[in-house]
Structure prediction request, 468 residues.
Amino acid sequence: MTAELYKMTAREAVRSLKRGDVSPDELIDAALARIKATDRAVNALPTLCPERARKYASRVSRGSLLAGLPIAIKDLVEVAGVRTTWGSPIFADHVSQHSDVVVETLERNGGVVVAKSNTPEFGAGGNTFNEVFGPTRNPWNTVLTAGGSSGGAAVALAVGQVWLANGSDLGGSLRTPASFCGVVGLRQSPGLVAHGPKADAFDTLAVDGPMARNVGDLALMLDAMVGADPRDPLAVHPPARSFSDHVAAPTMAKRIAFSADLGSLPIAREVKEICTKAVRRFEGLGASVEEACPDLRDAGAIFQTLRAAKFVTGHAEKLLKHRNRLKPEMIWNIEKGLKLSAEDIGRATLARSALLNRMAAFFADYDLLACPASAVPPFPVEQRYVEEIEGHKLDNYMDWLTIAFPGTLAGCPAISIPCGFTADGRPVGLQIIGRPRGEAALLEAAAIFEADAGLAQKLPIDPRIGHS
Prediction:
């Protein structure tokens, strides 16, 4: 029985825990066995903490939300007593003395941390590799990237190493790897999930969010993450009705807008075709689908400026002290920020507010906005980032991720759900963006789409060893 536990959904595993049919220790054993059997091929969970997991499991209440379910935590998030490297050689031997609020909340709700998931250095970039642990590989074809920066989390879920995992999202770091690995990732509205303590406590660009194999499991994970905390000044109290309840009895949105390129972005032809075909499912599910998009032409420039300023806040000191230990993309991003003037940042801040207002006006007419979750399907893992799409040359290592930026800038919840595969078997995700604080309606529509598409049943998979 233990050998088959990894195939259960998170909700099935939690129900078994609550009934006493299985113990947290048995699930920890199942997770460790699956990690041992699969991680050599994919390198998703390089840091394990089984002793700590068993200690926490011994005092978990069976009545708690997760009831002792083993989970993975991204290696950007501190877990007390566990190695946290941020994917950087600067912190290769760092052991955390405290846990992030995200971890405290999950543990209070019955989550048991069994491992840390791989991430690019400081979460920078959409390909999960670093000088500490090496690259994480795509489980559908191990010569391909898993995406990033929550790549280790997405892979761990896809191959059944854990039932739930957390991630974070600044410029698509939950959505891109979810798309690349055929799982579900949600960037929720800022403040819904408390995190910290952070040096930049008032930042609204980066959030911590849930990843899962299916929408129902993701709703459960989100329920276990939400809540206010005094160390996060933006955090809000949980909603009166759980997200799991919403997903259990979903209602379809009435009007859905769709854009294959958010107006003008370069998108791989096959990705466009798959997402265009997939979104038409909503018509058979009771919604109207119209081709429409707000004006988002300046989203890339706004995001790149504000991101660069954020990199100065978070990493300028590292550039001064450890320049020779930072990857080139980090150096470029920090230096871009250092070159900004107050006027540059002020203009970007005002432009962000104008973009938010355009999105708000758009959502007065439409319930949801759908588009591709990633501009391209998974690419070779050795390729650091995408430099060209359909003949369009890109400017820098972040440009290929621009389709994720509008949701971030407008503070909107955005989910990536599996919607198909390329001709050569690479997963493609559909991104659905909702109104700010509109997670419930977004998850309901995603759950209905998922049930109709039937792709969640494909997981978990055994890693498929590819050849260059």
Q: What stands out?
A: The longest helix spans residues 299-322. The first strand starts at residue 47 and ends at 48.
